[in-house]
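Sanity check

After download, print the first record. It should look like this:
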Amino acid sequence: MYKPIIAVVGRPNVGKSSFFNRVVGKRISIVEDTPGVTRDRIYCDTEWAGNALTFIDTGGIEPKQDGEWQKYILMQAQLAIDVADVVVFIVDGKDGVTKDDDHVAMLLRKSQKPIILAVNKLDTLKSENIFPFYELGLGDPIGMSCSHGLGVGDVLDAVVAKLNKKVIPIDEEKRLKIAIVGRPNAGKSSITNKLLGEERVVVSPVAGTTRDSIDVPFKFNGKEYIIIDTAGIRRKNKIDYTSIEGFSVMRSLAAIRRADVVVYVLDASDEITEQDVRVLGYIHEQGKPSVIVYNKWDLVAKDSYTVNLYRQKLQTDLKFMDYFVAIYISTKDGTRFGKIMETVEYVYNNANTRITTGLLNEVLQDAMFSAEPPSKAGHRLKINYATQVAVCPPTFALFVNNPDLMHFSYLRYLENSLRKAKNFEGTPIRILLRKKSKENRV
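Expected structure tokens:
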């Protein structure tokens, strides 16, 4: 399920991080009475009124300030606005409208994104404190005080209302979105161009050539798709955070979030890195079906054991996603290139798999018969009933007597039992624990 992205922007020291921390319910952003403390975006998932949301906290925007850090912060904020579904623009009610507020408002109007104007630091939410901010031309301002929690719920209600009005084009929704992700120079753009049958993306042997995410609609075997070619993800210590290249990670992570399937490209002639594992972990956490593509297979000296050695390496590094599907290709000579789209459809179909309630409960009963559920302090876990509640990824709700009695190893055992009953290769699955009630007792 796609979680809408909410960007929190404004000039320095207006309370963006305080708002962010209160919304997500924990102290994540650094809060300090010094402009420019939050220099990077920070993500966090939260929920409001039953809506799953992702908030991005950004550094304070000072449009007229010079210096590399200020240029970086401005570009980071602009990037957050670009990927956001709704923008919360926070201003300081005590300072009134400033020139920097005017500059940020102009930036937001150009973005044509839904904007919520939140006036912070108000001791009372009287209209005379809010009225001056109408001149920013961003609709009705909403007064709040993050330090006291006043009006924050009103801002979140307005965010949800904006999201409910947002319409996604039907034709775009029908197209399967495929994100092509990986480290620089692994061959992502070459794969994109070969799938499209034309040079739509710049290909260069220089790492980091593709600096932005590029959405390209295309047809394959009569079916419509959208392919997302992303900037390569480098190791953190290799990123220059004062340049455009420093934004490639966010572009790639944003592409992963909105993709239906992720194709992660590895260079077969190079080692898998910690950064590869980290991003694959992010793909797993986002619940995305994925295909691991080892490109440049033509550069590998091979014998009958080579594929097994590569697979064993992946099994060691990717223990958290042992459901992975790997294919071995060469964009240069075309070796097994046709397997990419075939495998994309395969893992996407698996991510849409449903298990009937009867079969699901039968599988769980057999699993419990073979291995008794865990117990703690004389109390044993009882699984009363189960049902599938979602697909992409397949998600199952287990109604139990006490969720605290579930051990992670037994949860993994149940997941493996489900995978034996149905083909979930290439996709994560989710198991949610729900406390048993009279209504779901069988």
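If your output differs, re-run the checksum step. Summary of this record's structure: The domain at 171-351 is CATH 3.40.50.300 (Rossmann fold).
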